[in-house]
Structure formats: C-alpha cells, structure tokens
Specification:
about 775 residues; alpha+beta; Ubiquitin-like (UB roll); Porin
C-alpha cells in the first residue's frame, strides 16, 4: 500500500470518527421531554405541484443539513460547552445553529395553512393529515403531512358587472389577456392576479385613483358539480352620499425639487426657481445637474394622460443617475379637478470617491502581489456622467527560467472610462424614450508588461452603446474598438530559442510577438430570469456575443489596391492588422431545492476563426482551459488544446490556447454554517485549434473524434459569503487527462496528488 492510500484511509477514518462523535451529541441541548425536529415531509395523493407549493407554508423546519445528510451547523453548536462565559463556547454557538425543538402548535398551524392553500388553489374540499413519528433514539421527531386534494374546481363562465361604461370597454378590449377563462382551474391566486392586472390596466389608462379594492368577485357553484360561475364586480367611488364615476387624470406640470427637505405636504417653500415651458426646478443652492439632464430622464409630459408605467420608468431612470443619492416621485391633485402636478424629488450624491485594493497572486506556483487605485467622478459635466480612472501595478517572481536578463514580471495598467447615461446616440435613436435604460461607454486602456522574455505594450480604445428594454435583459454594441499591440523589446535568448531558430521555430509565438492592430465590432446580449427578492425554484441565465475584426480595413485595402508587405500581410499605417470572426455562448441554470441547497448547471462554448490577413488568432482573443472558473483540476492555461501535452510552464503557455472551447460544469452548493457554504463539482471540456499547427500536435478539432479529447475533473470547494463579495477556494482533481495515454489517461483510478491536484483562490462564483 503506497503512502497516498495510507493517507486517504487515515483521513477517511478521521472524518467518520468526527461525524460519529458529533452525531451522538446532536441532542445535547434538547430539553427533557422535548424532541429535536428531525425532518418534515409533505406527501400528496396525486398533485405533486401542491407538495412544492406547500413548502412555503411550513412554519417550522429542521436544522439545515450539508448535502441534505449532515447537520453540520447543529453539530458545531453542540460542540460548545455549557459555560457561556468561555469565548470558544460563544464562538461555536454563534457560527453554529441551535437545535430546532419540535412545536406541536406550529405543526398544527402548518397543517391548517397547507389545507387553506389547497382550497385556494381550487381543491375546495381538500384536507391534510398530520402524523408524528418518534425516531429510534426517542429524542428526535419526524413529521408527515398527507395531502388529500380531492377534485379540483374549474371556471365555467365569467361575467362583468359595473356602472362605468368607459372602464367596461377598456377591460373588454383586453379580455384576451385575462387569466380567468372557462375551463381553467379556479384559484384565489388567479383571482388576485386578475385584480392586479385590471388595476394596472386602468392605471395605465389615466385612472390614477383606482385600486384593486374596487374589484370583487362572486363565485357561484352548483350542487354535485365542480364548475364555478364568476361575477366580476367593479364598484364606483363615493363621496359619502352618492356614487361617482372614476376620474381619468392628466399631467399638468412637472416640478423638480433638488433638496427633498424643502418639499413639505405638497408645498415647496424658501427656495429659488428656474422655469422652462411647463417644467419648474426648485433649489436653494446652484443646481448640480443640467436642466436638460432632468428633462431627458423624465418620461412623462405635461398634457399627457396619467400612465403608471411612465411614472415607474421615470423613477428608474433617475435612480440610475450616479449624481443622485435619492429620488422619489409625488403626485399632487388639484381640488375638484382631473389634473395632477408631478413633483420629482432628488438629492445630490457624493461626487468624488477614491478606493484602494491590495491582493496576492499565484500564477502556476509563481507568487506575486498587486496594488490598485480607483478614482471616480459621478458628475463630471453636470449631466451625471461617470468618470473612472483605475491605476494598478503587479509584480510576480518568475521561476524555472534560466539564461534571461530579468527574473521578475512587472505589469502596469491604466484604464480611463466615461459613462454617459442616455448616451451620445440619444438624438439618433427614435425609440430612445422606449428603452428602460441606456448609456454610452467610452474607454481607454494602457497595459504594459515587462517579462524576462519580452516587453509588451497593449493600447486600446472603445466606444460601446448599452441599452435594455426590460430588467431581465441587456444589449451592448461595440462601435468600434481599436487595440494596438506593440512589442518594443524581446530578449535575445527568447528570440534565438523560439522565434528565429530553424529547428525550433514557433509560428504561433512569432505572430503574437509582432506589432499588431485589432479593430473590433461586436454585440453582446445578456438575459436572466432571476427575480429580485423572491425565491425561485429554477433560474436561467444566458450570455451570447459575437465580434469581428479587420473587415473594414480589408475593404479599404481592396478599394485602394494596396499590396502586401514582406511578411505577406496587408498593413494599415505600416502595422499588420488581425482579421477574424468570433462567437461565444454561455448558459447557466440554477435549481434551488430550498434557500440553502442548489444545483447549478453551466455550459459554455465558443469558436473563433482567423482568415484573410490572419492565419493565427491574436493571443488576446484565443481560448484557454484550466483555472478557477473552469476545468478546476488544471491550473490556468495548462489544459489542451486537444491531446497536446505542455512542455515548459513559463514559455509554452501561449501554445496551450485554441480557437474552439467547450466547457460543461455541474456544481452542488450547500450551506455549512455561519457564512460558510460548500460546493461539490464536476467539470468537463477542452479547447481545440481549427487549423493544424506544428507547435500544437494533437490540438486540431476533428468532428469525428473530438469527444476523445474531452477532459474531466472533480472536486470540492468552500465559499465565504461576505456582505459585499464572495471569497472562494476550490480544490480540483483530474479525472480524465487527454494529454496522456494508457493508465495515466485516467487519474481518477490512480490519483497522484503531486500531478493531478490543483488549488484555486478566487473572488465570486465561477458561473
């Protein structure tokens, strides 16, 4: 038996021993004649959806369990002593979880709530039975809720009753959008949803004062029938003596208040005013934003019919302006009139902020440090423009290189960005006012790298237009982005060994250490089904992007009849330019079992094709595999392409890149205790090249055999969920390594920690 197996056996025995010890003390703090709530199970008779919905009505849940098996928070609490004056005991109790003592009253309330829920869902004669079972050790209790749904009632007919003909016509025109239709299940939830839908519909048509309290339903059922006849009744307001018709309101004036404190009970006092048209600004100090900015972000206009959606959109538009800390909208009515004045209150935000960051780095075992400083101005030109300047410096000790003048890696970064809300394209886009939000982002970046092998300068500038029509999706258009790569110095040893040597010439390295121009046009779409502050059983997100480079310059060269240079490349201002097309697609689905356990599926794919003026994809645009966000059994840039086996970790990293990427992951996330969560994961994927390169044997993508090159890894991780971010540690092991043949290809059968283990530290989730 080798040393690794002996170590594994001892570790397993130690873990089992600890679990046995703490499990025996799980009931340590359960009082006499009381029971620890061990489990809650809901068992339907035929409608599984009722069991899922019933989970929300459970009043008492058992202690949380890691992997739904080990109650680690409870065990942690049980490890504490009874002396609360000792610090260690207080710490264990704070990060642990006290035992949940079974409460018969809460169980009975749960039974009643589930029963009412099913009746509200149309099972009008539903009942629930509660059963208690005491576990073998007599200190734990399991509860079972048996659901007896019976027959479900459905809607048979619907009629509306109201004296307001105008409202009746509006509702009848939207009948196709109604949630209540003959044949559909009868449920209180659908009735409430219909009340909300009609209320929103009327408030969108000028009925500012209308609320769903004016809407009631009468349900009539016949004996020995499961059919329900519904009557929708819309009442009219009363002044205490007689009924009146509902009023339709119009916007009279737009009034801006730059300091909320001067607005009291619908009246503005002790301030100066600025007027333009039917817009008025109230202020005490000089306005900190331009009047045009206020008008551009206001979606309602004087003389328009009141529309709730435009009120909400105005509020959201003001809320995204970085110059403002606080925004609210107030409607003030004119007595005995259908006119409304809209007061928009806002307060100035702190204009300039500065932050610093210090971090440690570990790249393939080479240790280093990084320092960064960020300065932001939230109102540069008094239009809520966001200016951001980020400066950073990084240092890393390079090991494993000999014969080079330098031994360290130093990197400098400078990034300047300017975000214009509403954007410079506002006047050019007719549907600008229909967008939920939009902005234009201008960026300039400078990156300087000083490695032992070379100096590399990367300068880029880009202009992007970002917009969204709903809170769940967003679009980004890059028009255009220019990237200039300048290599002023290459070490003679590196040039001799890898660039100029006839026996060891590397065309991929040579291409990526020449001056290069990249002109990018791109589009990115993001979508997420996640709802804010609401538990969802499943959440889906997607990111899709496409970009191309060099086509405009290629067209200019074709029109002007320019000739290729000595390296058989077309140039622009004597600089060769890259020509390629690239597309990426990412899917992530999260299945939430409850608020502490979830299963996450991720799939990512990408392909980039160099053509025309390029036979090799620029290094910045190539794919790599391995690292903290994918294929976690490998260190960053150490997997692939295909079955290619890396040689030198400091020089060969550029060869371990490709034109195609496939990445699949499945990760189970579970709460441990305190702020600590765990993860178990399996990753699969690799990268490939579209062309065959001598420097990357085995790296080309072959449709009939690429599946043989798919790598697998597995592992576990910890996540520290802090208030502002998540710290992550992932330990991965190789399971299938396509770079090897024979027994070494399947390290899951014969693991070697020195060869197959990788540890990753990161901020945020991998996907």
């Amino acid at each position: 038996m080798n040393a690794n197996r002996i170590f594994d056996t001892k570790l397993l025995c130690a873990i089992l021993g600890i679990l046995l010890l703490v499990s025996c003390s799980a009931t340590k703090y359960v009082p006499e004649n009381e029971y620890l709530l061990n489990s809650v199970r809901i068992i339907p008779s035929h409608d599984r959806s009722m069991a899922d919905k019933a989970q929300a009505y459970v009043r008492q849940r058992p202690n949380s369990k890691w992997l739904n098996t080990f109650a680690l928070p409870l065990y942690t609490y049980s490890l504490s002593g009874r002396d609360s004056t000792k610090r260690i005991n207080r710490i264990l109790r704070k990060i642990g979880e006290a035992p949940v003592i079974y409460n018969r009253g809460k169980a009975e309330q749960t039974r009643y709530n589930i029963e009412q829920m099913m009746r509200n869902e149309g099972y009008l004669h539903a009942t629930v039975d509660l059963e208690e079972r005491i576990s073998d050790d007599t200190r734990r209790k399991d509860t079972y809720y048996y659901l007896h749904e019976g027959e479900r009632y459905s809607v048979d007919s619907i009629r509306m009753q109201t004296d307001d003909k105008a409202i009746s016509e509006i509702i009848q025109k939207s009948a196709s959008e109604s949630l209540l239709r003959p044949g559909r299940p009868f449920s209180i939830e659908n009735l409430e949803s219909e009340r909300s839908r009609i209320t929103s519909l009327l408030r969108e048509n000028g009925y500012y004062r209308f609320t769903k309290d004016y809407i009631t339903f009468i349900a009539d059922t016949a004996r020995h029938s499961t059919k329900v006849n519904l009557t929708l009744n819309i009442s009219t307001p009363t002044d205490g003596k007689r009924h009146q018709q509902h009023r339709r309101y119009m916007i009279n004036k737009i009034l801006y208040v730059s300091e909320p404190g001067i607005f009291q009970n619908g009246v503005v006092q002790d301030c100066d005013t600025a007027n333009w048209g039917k817009h008025t600004l109230f202020y005490r100090e000089k306005p900190f934003v331009r009047l045009r900015t206020l008008e551009d972000n206001t979606y309602i206009e004087p003389g328009d019919l009141y529309r709730q959606s435009l009120i909400n959109r105005t509020y959201n538009s003001f809320a995204q302006l970085t110059a403002m800390r606080y925004t609210s909208l107030h409607m003030v009515e004119y007595p005995d009139s259908s006119l409304l004045d809209c007061y928009i209150l806002f307060e100035k935000n702190k204009r300039r902020i500065m932050s610093f960051e210090v971090e440690g780095t570990n790249t393939m075992g080479d240790l280093g440090a990084a320092v960064s400083m960020t300065f932001s101005d939230r109102n540069l030109f008094r239009g809520s423009e966001l200016l951001s300047l980020r400066l950073s410096w990084a240092w890393e000790a390079i090991t494993g290189l000999s014969g080079y003048m330098r031994k360290n890696y130093i990197e400098y970064n400078a990034e300047l960005s300017l975000r214009l809300f509403g954007g410079v394209f506002s006047s050019l886009i007719p549907m600008q006012k229909d967008l939920l939000q939009s902005s234009t982002l201008l960026t300039l970046k400078l990156n300087s790298q000083r490695r032992p092998e070379y100096d590399r300068l990367n300068m880029s500038g880009a202009m992007s237009y970002i917009w969204s029509r709903s809170p769940r999706s967003s679009h980004k258009l890059d028009i255009p982005g220019v990237n200039y790569i300048y290599v002023p110095w290459i070490d003679n040893q590196f040039r001799k060994d890898y660039l100029d040597s006839i026996s060891n010439r590397n065309s991929i390295l040579k291409y990526n250490y020449e001056n290069l121009l990249i002109t990018k046009f791109g589009y990115t779409y993001n979508y997420s089904s996640a709802a804010e502050n609401r538990f969802q059983r499943a959440v889906f997100s997607m990111r899709a992007g496409a970009e191309c480079s060099g086509n405009l310059l290629s067209g200019i060269n074709n029109l002007t009849g320019r000739k290729k240079d000595a390296d058989n490349k077309y140039t622009f201002m004597n600089i060769a330019y890259a020509q390629y097309i690239k597309g990426d697609l990412d899917f992530t689905t999260t299945v939430n079992f409850d608020n502490r356990n979830s299963l996450v599926f991720h799939m990512g794919m990408g392909v980039a094709y160099p053509y025309g003026n390029s036979t090799v994809l620029p290094f910045e645009k190539r794919y790599f595999a391995g690292g903290a966000n994918g294929m976690r059994g490998w260190l960053v840039r150490t997997l692939g392409p295909g079955s290619y086996k890396g040689k030198d970790k400091n020089i060969d990293y550029i060869n371990q890149t490709g034109d195609i990427k496939l990445d699949w992951s499945i990760e189970f996330r579970s709460y441990l205790f305190w702020k600590l969560y765990s993860a178990l994961f399996v990753d699969a994927g690799n990268i490939w090249t579209l062309r065959s390169y001598e420097e990357q044997p085995g790296g080309q993508f072959e449709l009939g055999s690429f599946y043989k090159d798919i790598a697998f890894s597995y592992g576990m991780g910890l996540r520290f969920k802090l208030d502002l971010f998540v710290l992550r540690i992932d330990a991965g092991m190789k399971a299938v390594n396509p770079a090897f043949r024979g027994k070494d290809r399947y390290p899951i059968l014969r693991p070697d920690f020195g060869r197959d283990f990788a540890l990753h530290f990161a901020v945020g989730y991998p996907f």
